[in-house]
């Protein structure tokens, strides 16, 4: 089963006081790039929400095979990213994994466990808990 991963990265990072947490270094690369590569390593399609395709965050995604979904009204809240991201999913999508891009403790293996659990259990919704 194909379960696209929607990586939420259109927010303003307002709590960072001018710094962009998604461009902060995580293991030698920007956090957003690390998270996108981990999502891609699952073998699932990956969509990344950004405020615009020319936003500084886009530069760390240029070499990756993923779809950038523009959310020009991201300042209105996360729901805008969810709306635009879901509308951009392949039409035959039966499910979607929603992943905040600012959670570098989530590894590819964690995503794969969620995908496998969804395929096996077939729940209406599945969420991770710490």
What does the model show?
There is one protein chain. By secondary structure, this protein is an alpha/beta fold. The protein has one domain: Spore Coat Polysaccharide Biosynthesis Protein SpsA, Chain A, CATH 3.90.550. The chain is 26% helix and 16% strand. The strands form two sheets. It has a four-stranded parallel beta sheet, with helices on both faces. A hairpin with a 2-residue loop joins strand 2 and strand 3 (29-30). The chain is globular. The model has no long low-confidence stretch (mean pLDDT 94).
| Individual helix count | 3
Count of all domains: 1
Uncertain spans = none
The oligomeric state is single chain
Order of helices and strands: EEEHEEHEH
- For the biggest β-sheet, the strand order reads 5-4-1-6
Report Rg.
14 Å
- Major sheet size, sense and barrel closure: 4 strands, parallel
CATH architecture term: Alpha-Beta Complex
Shape: globular
Helix content: 25-40%
Q: How confident is the prediction overall: mean pLDDT? A: 94
CATH class, named Alpha Beta
Strand content: 15-25%
The CATH homologous superfamily: Spore Coat Polysaccharide Biosynthesis Protein SpsA, Chain A
**Whole-Å distance between the termini?**
26 Å
Structural class per helix/strand content?
alpha/beta
CATH topology: Spore Coat Polysaccharide Biosynthesis Protein SpsA, Chain A
Secondary structure: number of strands: 6
